[in-house]
Amino acid sequence: MTIKELSKEEYLLKGHAACAGCGPSIALRLLFKALGNNVILVVPACCTTVIQGTYPYTSFAVPLQNILFESTAAAASGIVAALRQRKLEGTTVVGWAGDGGTVDIGIQALSGAAERKTDFIYICYDNEAYGNTGMQRSGATPYGAWTTTTPSGKRERKKDMPLIMAAHRILYVATACPSFPIDFVNKLRKAKDIEGTKYIHILTPCPTGWRYDTSKTVELGRLAVQTGLWALYEIEYGKFKLNPPSDRLVDEAKRKPIKEYLTLQGRFRNLTEEDIGQIQKWVDEDWERYRKLTSNSTSDSTLYGKT
Fold it and tell me: Quick one: which of 49, 2, 45, 10 has its CA closest to 26?
């Protein structure tokens, strides 16, 4: 499909309270473009609780339940059960949570839902810090990044949450970025038609926490993919597949240097050349793993064993 084929209806309404250049707000708009308004959204404490506006007003033209930080997947599971009990079909339940509420605080409920194969889409919008509470580091904050709790740069690597979810043997796991809107929309629509727990992890640049000019959000998302730092892929029924343009980046020569991405962001201002070299080494190692996964997917093998 093309951008022109997307619905002209808007369910993220004007006057919302997102920051200028907010990556999550772009992703939310695309979410509704993909799924329409027959959606029930479950949102924990995160930036989206601000974006939606203050009571009694809202910027979302869909039903939304605000829930505790740790309870997104638990609340979504309850809604799925209630819809089934009332024999109401056709409504898509979406858990929409930030990285802190997913890779840290919310991982227990999400893991339980995945084990039970609860039929909903869980989306982690990843701005790589606790954005709503002051930009503290999360398990998704990358190595070397400034946050208010890592003022000299985080010294641990980012959790690989998509592969953690793939280890649950759910039928659909994907990564995305709103800088590549059609890829994200296609993955949402595919996830909607698959039964069970579906997990999509999207990188959503944040000018406030990442310290860049608000006009650069889409550019930074593209650079994250073009440097290979953020790979676009999906794991469908255990089969790993790279999506464009990431499918061309198995060839190292086609990846841009990681330094082009890092130097545009103030949060990486304390990185040394040695740090940048280490991050580049890790990226190259990740791509060797993707290459092997892609090769395996051409056979009858999957991440879960033989088909």
Answer: 10
Question: Domain with 74 in it: what CATH number?
Answer: 3.40.50.970
Tokens 């503290």 identify what position? 136
- For residue 100 the two structure tokens come to 């802190």
Q: What residue ranges in 19-91 does DSSP mark as E strands?
A: 39-43, 64-66
For each of the chain's 307 residues, which pLDDT tens digit applies? 788 888 899 999 998 999 999 999 999 999 999 999 999 999 999 999 999 988 888 999 999 999 999 999 999 999 999 999 999 999 999 999 999 999 999 999 999 999 999 999 999 999 999 999 999 999 999 999 999 999 999 999 999 999 999 999 999 999 999 999 999 999 999 999 999 999 999 999 999 999 999 999 999 999 999 999 999 999 999 999 999 999 999 999 999 999 999 999 999 999 999 999 999 999 999 999 999 999 876 666 677 766 5
Query: Do the Cβ atoms of 165 and 148 come closer than 8 Å?
Result: no
**Helix (H) or strand (E) run with residue 188 in it:** helix 181-192
Q: Which residues contact 73 (CB under 8 A, 6 or more apart)?
A: 95, 106, 109, 110, 112, 113, 118, 120, 122
- Measured CA to CA, the distance from residue 67 to residue 45 in angstroms comes to 7
Q: What's the predicted TM-score (pTM) here?
A: 0.96
Strands 233-236 and 239-242: antiparallel
Question: Shortest CA distance to 236 belongs to which of 186, 177, 179?
Answer: 186
Give the start-end residues of each E strand in the chain: 39-43, 64-66, 92-98, 120-126, 172-176, 197-203, 233-236, 239-242, 301-302, 305-306
Number of folded domains in the chain?
A: 1
| CA angle centred on 265, ends 48 and 149, rounded to 5° | 65
Which two structure tokens, joined as six digits, stand for 181?
């809107």
Q: What is the extent of the structural domain holding 288?
A: 3-306
Question: At which residue do the structure tokens 């009332």 appear?
Answer: 86
